[in-house]
Write a structure and sequence with these properties.
The complex is a heterodimer of chains A (about 400) and B (about 450). By secondary structure, chain A is mainly beta. Chain A has one domain: Porin (Beta Barrel), CATH 2.40.160. Chain A is about 5% helix and about 55% strand. In chain A, about 55% of the residues are buried. Chain B is of the alpha/beta class. Chain B folds into 2 domains: about 300 residues, Rossmann fold (3-Layer(aba) Sandwich), CATH 3.40.50.1110; about 80 residues, no CATH class. In chain B, the strands form 6 sheets. In chain B, strands 4-1-5-6-13 form a 5-stranded parallel beta sheet, with helices on both faces. In chain B, a hairpin with a 7-residue loop joins strand 9 and strand 10. In chain B, helix 4 crosses helix 15. The chains are: A mainly beta (about 400), B alpha/beta (about 450). Chains A and B meet through strand 2, strand 8, strand 20 and strand 22 of A and helix 1, strand 14 and strand 16 of B. Strand 8 of chain A pairs parallel with strand 16 of chain B, so a sheet runs across the interface.
């Protein structure tokens, strides 16, 4: 288990599947149902989806999963003929969960390690947005120890403390050129951290119906000792001194209402509505340690708005140990007109998911899913940069997890 | 329904093809509207020629707004556009005979080592003035450095037999017939279907650049008659075209880089200068002072520069800082535009611009308000994440002579032309991708 975790972390857990920077890849069963599952007590991923449901899990278990994410964006300028494609590397969001409690105990303990927010985007060389962004990698890993208490067969509550660690790597070209035609560039890298919590209630008023309500708090990820590196013509090096910078990125609170409905013995349905408090993200500011007349602190307005996602999924049991799943979701963008940027060419989007799960010898379960996200074409002129064009993004995410129950 | 079906099919295909499908976006269609771009001719001065860094040289020519505009026209069926190119390896030559400027490290006793524009060679390349018409002509670009409004219809403008000062060697090199050609006759001989006319800058600028010490502002009557003669002749052949107006000098870093009150003194220095210049109109105090300038009308022949007056970029900067020019000794008039001179320049500019706009409207031509565009850039504007301003060197729009544009400045100007042409002729000529063009080159 420990070894496997280390391997997973050494993958590049930079994330792309996003609503804003939110990553909705926190469990293969749920992903296969377009990430509905707050109202279900399905598996160890309830540590993330609903800590209140953890106490209602029938078995103890550990599970690990990974979801290689393949994202493609295309940009077409409004004013000229230039077109650009992203050349983003595959990112690998991962999950690791464990749930444990004595057999007859009402109390269960859980631990979740997951990647709730992040983004990876890299644009092709020389593209027309390069003075805003050539590459951005944002990633966060949340570590969440959790307790869950089964008040009765009808009610469970749970909460977890969240410690978040993160990384930022932002690169852009600078519009200064040397005699060979080489442009300058800037690279900002740093580590971040923050704290928060995840709490939930699980209700099962009748046998066929279950309800989940969760509150995942805002986590402010602060970069205190970032490193700003500038590569510019030598005569300008004193204008762009290398040095430290600080910044912060708020990861918003998410409030979810989920419902589970056992339609038949074989068919389980789930529906979730997420409220995401993206209005917390007002600006992206960089405070440089060494300011010069050319290197001033920057404040770029982002002005995200609160937004919603609607998720619907189902699981059909072909046999007791063999399940197929499918789901759809519609996710509304938090990015308002005038604020679309190459770092996150976000738009409203549809999410289509399918998956299977098979359990061997009642203990080892393999779940796999495939998600396809189709972003609406988004045409915008950014208010800060006057960069005008259309973006279109597809994201494909296969995923697999292994669970061991005891 | 069909669309939904095909999109679903595409989505399924995407998924099955190893998740490698890339989203497709249509490149906007190019519509030439009512434009006939078969033969485009550009008439103008140094800006049209792509003159930059105080010289005509190849790299500047290749990035002139006229060339960029012609390239965009070619996307909409426009014809070939021939420019009287100079040799790519030439250091170029300027109106006063110098080679092109480049940012260079200079060391002297006064200021130590610093970066400043310097000619790349001791003198310019006079071989540029030899005719290239036989080798490269006939041309589409009639950008002639130094040309004023009344030079456009001037027959024999390139005739060296007229003697030095009475002909323009920059036209000699491109004229179809040195003795008889005018810019206008050579342009008309191409049977243009579309023209651009960007002239009038030099009608005030050559006077302004010399601090009012040389040259003269073209009288408004002469300007009006020249523009009428030019535009009437052009529109008789080519009913379609675009006219650009004249930027106000306050948009040009040549005039705005050295502040009029850049003389910062402490109390002792001020007292010393007051003693030195006792009995004149000049007076000094602690803090920022107007530079000491020569003015025959002032008591003692000297006074302080006041707000609204300009100290020119041609002023020897070293002497300002190190030898007491502008403080112990008065700045000679060729380095200063006084309020009276500025008023005369701006009155003429306003008149010219009214005339150009009236003519464009009367002839149904597109009109580019280059003056308004540059004014909007004084405080800085952002395009595609690049902040551009009229600030010298760092602003990105103006080359090292403080008057002519960089590649980036030309690209931005080209887009102003395209926007006004598209609006007038209901066309959708794509703009230039400005991120492919750079400002001042740094070592």
């Amino acid at each position: 288990m420990k070894k496997l975790l280390i391997i997973l972390i050494s993958l590049s857990p930079f994330l792309a599947q996003a609503q804003g920077f939110q990553v909705n890849l926190q469990g293969q069963k749920q992903q296969a149902m377009s990430s509905a599952g707050t109202g279900l007590a399905l598996d160890e991923a309830s540590v993330f989806f609903n800590p209140g449901a953890v106490s209602h899990l029938e078995k103890n278990g550990v599970s690990v999963g990974v979801s290689p994410t393949i994202a493609h964006s295309t940009f077409q300028s409004t004013s000229n003929q230039s077109q650009a494609r992203s050349t983003s590397p595959v990112s690998t969001p991962f999950t690791a969960y464990s749930v444990w409690g004595p057999e007859e105990s009402k109390l269960k303990f859980g631990l979740g390690i997951y990647t709730p927010f992040g983004s990876t985007i890299q644009w092709e060389d020389g593209w027309s947005g390069r003075f805003q962004l050539t590459r951005l990698q944002l990633f966060s890993v949340f570590i969440q120890p959790t307790v869950s208490y089964k008040i009765s067969d009808k009610v469970g509550i749970g909460a977890g403390f969240v410690y978040g660690i993160g990384k930022i790597d932002l690169r852009r070209d600078l519009p200064v050129v040397d005699a060979n035609g080489n442009y300058g560039n800037a690279k900002l890298t740093g580590n971040a951290n923050g704290i928060g919590f995840n709490a939930g209630i699980y209700l099962k008023p009748i046998e066929k119906l279950s309800i989940g309500i969760t509150y995942r708090s805002r986590v402010d990820m602060k970069v205190n000792k970032g490193n700003a590196e500038f590569n510019v013509p030598s005569s300008l090096s004193s204008n762009f001194p290398n040095g430290g910078f600080s910044s912060s990125l708020p990861l918003p609170r998410v409030i979810t209402l989920g419902v589970g409905f056992r339609a038949t013995d074989k068919l389980l349905l789930a529906a979730d509505v997420n409220f995401i408090g993206w209005s917390a993200y007002k600006e992206l500011a960089f405070d440089y340690e060494n300011n010069t007349s050319t290197l001033q602190d920057t404040k770029s307005e982002r002005n995200y708005k609160d937004t919603y996602a609607f998720r619907l999924g189902g699981q059909y049991s072909i046999k007791e140990n063999f399940h197929v799943r499918a789901g759809v979701a519609y996710q509304l963008t938090p990015v308002q007109d005038g604020y679309v940027t190459p770092e996150l060419p976000d738009a409203n989007k549809m999410n289509y998911s399918v998956g299977v799960g098979y359990t061997f010898a009642e203990k080892l379960t393999v779940d796999a899913s495939f998600t396809f996200e189709d972003f609406d074409k988004r045409t915008d002129t950014n208010k800060e940069t006057n960069f005008s064009g259309s973006y279109k993004t597809y994201i494909a995410i296969p995923g697999i997890s292994l669970s061991y129950n005891f | 329904m069909k669309k939904i079906f095909s999109r679903t099919l595409y989505t399924i295909a995407c998924i099955s093809l190893a998740f490698s499908c890339k989203p497709k976006l249509e490149t906007p269609a190019i519509d030439k509207g009512s434009l006939n771009l078969t033969t485009y001719v550009a008439i103008g001065n140094s800006i049209t020629a792509g003159y930059a860094d105080n010289a005509l040289y190849r790299n500047g020519q290749e990035n002139s707004y006229a060339k960029l505009l012609a390239e965009q026209f070619q996307l909409a069926g426009g014809g070939a556009f021939k420019i009287p190119y100079v040799d790519p390896n030439s250091v170029g030559i300027g109106s006063t005979g110098g080679a092109r400027l480049a940012l260079t490290y200079v060391t002297d006793a006064c200021q130590g080592t610093y970066l400043t524009p310097r000619p790349v060679e001791a003198s310019g390349d006079v071989t540029i003035f030899a005719s290239v018409y036989a080798a490269q002509g006939p041309f589409n670009s009639f950008g002639v450095p130094g040309a004023k409004s009344f030079h456009v219809p001037f027959a024999g403008y390139g005739n060296s037999a007229n003697g030095v000062g009475n002909y323009n060697p920059f036209f000699t090199r491109m004229a179809a017939d040195e003795a008889t050609s005018s810019m206008l006759t050579d342009a008309l001989a191409r049977n243009p279907t579309f023209f651009s006319l960007f002239i009038g800058n030099n009608d005030v600028l050559l006077y302004a650049l010399s601090g009012g010490a040389q040259d003269a502002i073209t009288p408004t009557g002469t300007f009006d008659a020249s523009i009428d003669a030019t535009v009437n002749a052009l529109t008789a052949v080519s009913p379609q075209g675009v006219i650009a107006n004249v930027p106000d000098i306050t948009s040009l870093p040549y005039f705005t880089t050295v502040p009029y009150n850049g003389l910062v003194l402490d109390a002792t220095q001020a007292a010393g200068l007051n003693a030195l210049h006792a009995g004149s109109d000049a007076s000094f105090h602690e803090g920022a002072n107007g530079f000491l300038i020569a003015d025959a009308a002032a008591t003692g022949g000297k006074r302080n520069a006041v707000a609204g007056e300009f100290i020119l970029l041609s002023t020897p900067q070293n002497d300002l800082k190190c030898t007491g020019l502008g403080s112990q000794t008065a700045l000679p008039t060729q380095y200063v535009l006084t309020a009276t001179e500025v008023a005369a320049i701006q009155a003429a500019t306003i008149h010219y611009n009214n005339k150009l706009k009236t003519v464009a409207e009367a002839k149904g031509l597109a009109f580019v308000d280059a003056n308004a565009f540059l004014k909007s850039a004084i405080k800085g504007i952002t395009f595609d994440g690049i902040n551009v301003s009229t600030t010298f060197v760092s602003g990105g729009a103006f080359s090292l002579d403080g008057v002519h544009l960089t590649h980036l400045g030309n690209a931005l100007l080209t887009n102003e032309f395209i926007r006004s042409i598209n609006a007038k002729y209901r066309s959708t000529i794509p703009e230039v991708d400005i991120t492919k063009y750079h400002g001042v080159v740094f070592p």
